[in-house]
Write a structure and sequence with these properties.
Layout: E1 5-9, E2 14-19, H1 24-34, H2 39-55, H3 66-78, H4 84-101, H5 127-134, H6 139-151, H7 155-159, E3 166-167, E4 172-175, E5 184-187, H8 193-212, H9 224-227, E6 247-248, E7 254-255, H10 261-274, H11 283-295, H12 301-308
Antiparallel strand pairs: 1-2, 3-4, 4-5, 6-7
Helix pairs in contact: 1-2, 2-4, 3-4, 6-11, 11-12
Amino acid sequence: MGNISLKYDSTKHRILGVTNKPKLLTQIQQKMRTASYSPKTIQSYVRWIKEFILFNNKKHPSELGKKEVENFLTYLAVKRNVSASTQNQALSAILYLYKNIVPQNIGWLNDVVRAHKSRRLPVVFTKDEVKKIFNFLEGTTKLVCSLLYGSGLRLGEALRLRIKDIDFERRQIIVCEAKGDKDRITTLPSSIIPELKNQLNKVYLQHKEDLKKGKGKTKLPYALARKYPNANKDFYWQYVFPADKFVKDETGLIFRYHIHESTIQKAIKVACKKANILKHGTAHTFRHSFFFFKQKTAYDIRTIQELLGHNSVYPVRYAI
């Protein structure tokens, strides 16, 4: 149940009634969860809508319209100097708000100053640089980076992997609910299979201990929890890279979520510094490198595109 609040008519100085409707941002979160939006998208949309409201002196979106939206988007481009993709993300969030939460036709946005769309080439590690970086990575972090480099996964995709998504026999990884809510299949390098099997064995033993303690459940996607009430205890639904600590979700479920992205990002940053790599390397750089090296093999460009889950492919900055 949402927070109970009073509706007040300031012109007539009287209370109109009592509502127990959830607050606006809570409504957005609930609506987007119901529509199966990813947690990252929900977080992003809520942040942009909040910024839009604050920009307009905390006025309710129902009191705002086309002019205020155009002013906000222009402010992002001119004053904040955001990229075109960032401005489009903010626009998508606001359009979602006026289409699904506060039904209101704001018309065509013709007077928005568009952010400059720059085309930057992605950074790529050479094979030698990858070896140097991997010398300063270990354990789970090294295994995750091996998946980014050897399978072309995004960091979020690698961390969201479940046991069921690994197919050792076919040497494949099934990437579920990837960007654009699409599923795809990518390669599983034979070189990391022993280490990956060892990781799954650790998760299995940990899961057995959790079950003994009355825990061991995980959060299932969509409505699977209602359809299969006991499936959340099954080993094959567990995360490949579970966190050390338990968390509690909005339903009260206590479970192990996957390790946080920042854990991997920080480790890569430290490893690059220790390896004296001067490029601006991130987790995504390993994915770019996967594209580059596949391009050098017998793989055709369309196959690489499908493995990456891209609508298009792009050139890279560095050659070996």
